[in-house]
Amino acid sequence: xxxxxxxxxxxxxxxxxxxxxxxxxxxxxxxxxxxxxxxxxxxxxxxxxxxxxxxxxxxxxxxxxxxxxxxxxxxxxxxxxxxxxxxxxxxxxxxxxxxxxxxxxxxxxxxxxxxxxxxxxxxxxxxxxxxxxxxxxxxxxxxxxxxxxxxxxxxxxxxxxxxxxxxxxxxxxxxxxxxxxxxxxxxxxxxxxxxxxxxxxxxxxxxxxxxxxxxxxxxxxxxxxxx
Length: 227
Fold this sequence. Notes:
Blueprint: H1 7-10, H2 17-28, H3 42-53, E1 64-69, H4 72-87, H5 94-106, E2 115-122, H6 126-136, H7 140-146, H8 150-168, E3 172-173, E4 176-177, H9 183-190, E5 196-205, H10 219-222
Antiparallel strand pairs: 1-2, 2-5, 3-5, 4-5
């Protein structure tokens, strides 16, 4: 089922034009995986990154960085690294057999986009984590958990800003999770150094497809009001 816009917003009057435009952008955005080879100007790229950096972030950490890859040789190399790592997975394991099929299909198409944005996240200072571990008697993962994964939440908000503005600028883009089997090798190819971590790829360009709307849960299924 394709979720309809709430009735209260269907007949927006002139006072709600900006809201209607924003909702149209949110509703019409699609994940695009096929691109034309037209380039993207540096000015447009700066606009996209500017929009991303307007996102909220926990403690105003702004734990994001955007590496923009235009070089086709590097894009091909990144895709090759992923395929190589996939082939090294244990194919006798049922989970990995399913994972490799999905990774091969959905994790290398970025090489055909004119631009790939590698999104990096900077984790909390280790001293901060160690203090929580010490005084709350938890392990490091639980300490990060208690902090609400604030860095990842912040960067996710930045990515969403970028995707929406890209759509408003008539570009297509796709939010790609970095394959678990290739993260370290991809970071080496991109020259990522600690405390930074590679979190996502965003291929972007003028779309060469018009993806259909996909089913969304009805608002009533995902909302509860507590009076």
